[in-house]
């Protein structure tokens, strides 16, 4: 059995980040876009924790906790915006978002 190296964590993180980018670019559903952004943030957290463990430092884990807190705040505000948008337009399609236009 092969040991798990930081390269394995980087490959997993890159795959998750690419899936998140594809979800943001290709989808038109606002909820899926927010889920893809959360997936990208979690991919960054995997790298932070893996390299923190590899180098024996705790700073990466502290940054990962900071990212989790920011992601939770982003999710709360984002879901509030999505609910308000759905109540006004009765859709969560990004193409229908023209509320801020003149």
Please tag this protein with its features.
3 helices; single chain; mainly alpha; elongated; 102 residues; Helix Hairpins
General description of the model:
This protein has helices at residues 6-26, 30-55, 59-89. It has 102 residues and is mostly helical. The protein has a single domain, classed as Helix Hairpins, CATH 1.10.287. Helix 1 packs antiparallel against helix 2 (30-55) and helix 2 (30-55) packs antiparallel against helix 3 (59-89). The chain starts with 5 loop residues before the first helix and ends in a 13-residue tail after the last helix. The mean pLDDT is 91.
Compose a concise summary of this entry.
The chain is mostly helical and 102 residues long. The chain contains three helices and no strands. It is elongated, with a radius of gyration of 17 Å.
H-E order: HHH
Percent range for helical residues? over 70%
CATH architectural designation: Orthogonal Bundle
Distance linking N and C termini: 62 Å
**CATH first level:** Mainly Alpha
Report Rg.
17 Å
Number of helical stretches of at least 4 residues? 3
Structural class: mainly alpha
The average pLDDT is 91
- Tally of individual domains: 1
Shape: elongated
CATH topology: Helix Hairpins
Low-confidence stretches: none
What profile does the largest beta sheet have?
none
Number of strands: 0
Percent of sequence in beta strands: under 5%
